[in-house]
Specification:
The structure holds two protein chains of two kinds. Chain A is α/β, with parallel strands linked by helices. Chain A contains 14 helices and 14 strands. Chain A folds into two domains: 67-162 and 267-371, D-Maltodextrin-Binding Protein, domain 2 (3-Layer(aba) Sandwich), CATH 3.40.190; 165-264, 3-Layer(aba) Sandwich (D-Maltodextrin-Binding Protein, domain 2). Chain A has helices at residues 2-22, 67-74, 100-113, 126-134, 149-154, 195-206, 219-228, 238-247, 275-294, 301-304, 310-315, 324-327, 333-341, 344-352, and strands at residues 77-81, 84-85, 89-91, 97-98, 119-123, 140-141, 157-158, 163-172, 186-191, 211-216, 233-237, 254-256, 263-266, 269-270. In chain B, the strands form three sheets. Chain B has a four-stranded antiparallel beta sheet with strand order 1-2-3-8. Classes of the chains: A alpha/beta, B alpha+beta. The interface between A and B is large, with 54 and 49 residues.
Amino acid sequence: MNRNLSALLVVLSILSVVLTACGPTECPECPPCPEAGECPECPPCPEAAECPECPPCPEAPAAGEQRLQIVLDRGKVVCGGRTDLLGFGYLDADGKNIGFDVDLCRAVAAAIFNDPNAVEFVPLTAAERGPALQTNEVDMLSRNCTWTSSRDAQWGNFTVVMFYDGQGMMVRQASGAETLEDLDGATVCVTTGTTTELNLADNFRGRGLEFTAVTFEDTASVYNAYEEGRCDAATSDKSQLAAVREGFANPDDHVVLDVTMSKEPLTPAVPAGDDQWFDLVKTVMYVLINAEELGITSQNVDEMMGSDAPSVKRLLGVEGEFGQADLGLSADFAANVIRAVGNYGEIYDRYMGPDGDAFTLPRGPNKLWSDGGLVYAPPIR
Amino acid sequence: MDQDSHIQVITRSSIPLWRDERVIQGIAQILSAVLVIGFLAFFVGNVLQAARDRGLSLGYDFVSQSAGFPLAESVIPYDESMSFGYAFLVGILNTLKVALVGVVGATILGTVAALARISPNWLVSKIASVYIEVVRNIPLLVQLFIWYFAVFQGLPLVKESIQWPGPVFLSQRGIYLPAPVPTSTFGTWVIFVGAGVVLACVLRVVLGRYQLKTGRTTYPVLTSVVVLVALPTVGWFLGGGSPLVKDVPVLGKFNFTGGMQLTTEYAALLTGLVIYTGAFIAEVVRAGILAVDRGQFDAARAVGLSNAQVLRLVVFPQALRVIIPPLISQYLNLTKNSSLAIAVGYPDLFFVGRTVINQAGRAVPVFLMVMAVYLFISLTTSVLMNIYNRRIQFVER
């Protein structure tokens, strides 16, 4: 009996030691502050009462402000994109990533490393791109992503609109449909997890039309189902419809309706919380647009270095400066970028111009502001 | 020699603490509890910290926001203006629709295939073997793609649908059947149906007991089935006007309107799941049947029972003991494999969850909800099947 009792006492004392070790006996430590700002002092603990919570440290980006360093250490930029959309992100015959969005990533890599191939591409589906950006899995998301207010609030920071697009509808020529009203009761194929899906519902409901949506996760299934006849129409950004139409067995059997269902500003995005990285990517985009305005191309960039125009000299880093040091870039990074990927017009024409590799789409709203389009960048100074 | 004084009686209370089993076990349990709880606390804390760092919200307030996205099919009426929570409910019902029908279908198919495989007929047995071996060894996702993109998409276009008497229309968009629509006399007919069911059950029990007691054949099953069919039929005509009217599908400009529709997505998912899980269930059932002692079969045949009677009365009841636990696993597998619906565009729970994540921007809360629902469905299935399992166990001496 004594033995039993002492065994019990030993167990109980061990338990109590463990529990007391876990319980709060002293003030919790103030979280460590980065250099930018003093940590307020933890108020002393009153006797036998709850320790008050430490007030939060003043705002100083902890994980932010470091993305450039992480990228430099890694030696390449991690770019979230896609490999299945003609014109924007696809593979050439050798399996190399090419496309409009891909070249924007290469521009950033050229700015940092002077090497457009210092990029690692991560293919993402429409449903994955938001979480990938939120969890810092990619340094930059260049995947024909529409800039919306909720995405800006939730996913990350959207840089500069590089492609002004709108949502369209593709139907078979034989159906004879010309407006959305002609599609009352139709079955429409759409990719899930996109603004397209929501706009489709809004447009049809707003006009009092009925429709049935067939949604898939991956784009290939959507257009496959449409081509097979499972759906009467397919909807997406007009650029995507043009791209996909080229890939059909009989492109002339299909027509993109002359209806624009929404605004779709396609914008590369970066994760939230790092202002320097955000500014860096934005500046690279501005460089591409300004280069076209100033007439600098990948062919003539070296001779333009000797130009007299002050704006050209400033852009190419020959004379004057426009904040390269604050961004952590070299003075002539703009010249490297233009030499590596070309200016905005060259990138556009490479894939979607009259001799474009993918298809031909008139620039329309993607012309420079001076030509009547919407492409406008702040001055480089 | 006086040994008594040298013999030390070993009692439990005289074991020193450091090698007393009970103490060691107690301390081990406390330590492992601390470790497990510590681990969980670390992971949960990590998730919360990461969410706080990245400004990700972990609340559930988005559930009442308007969904905005359409769903291809749903059991309850749904449109885009309803909330995310409602869309989630539609997803759950769609999953249950596939899971319940799939479970029933797979069990029937599996049992038939198992019996075919152990049949003495060489051809039947080989066909069953080939089916089981081929289906078990191809990944389910591949099979679903084949069913959806190769088979069901290969059906004719809507405008050229195959028409069967009914009228039933078979096309790429799915199977369109006439739907029963209740009329004013539906209520009275339901009463007749109810009466038929009750009377059939009562007759079965009463006649069965009478047969056992007196030994006279009274055909309990046959009589109750006849009553079950006869009463509703009588009620159909007595009610005055037919209680159900056919709503026939009519081809409009793009699609059929009216009638019931079984979409290709649902059909492909169901077929793929039933055939895949059926193969596994076939092996489970076969194992159960083979586990019954050969002597039972021989003795039953010696007593004069036919092959079918032996299976039904002697072999299967004993085989069920072995079949039910792995069968529970197969049912759970089917339920969880239904999440592959995302590949064929069927809006099940996982599909709706993914869309909600993308449109509402909340990955962690939505995934927790999805996991909780699957866990609930699976645990309910397990509990119900285990109740059945316990009833059919025999008590061994």
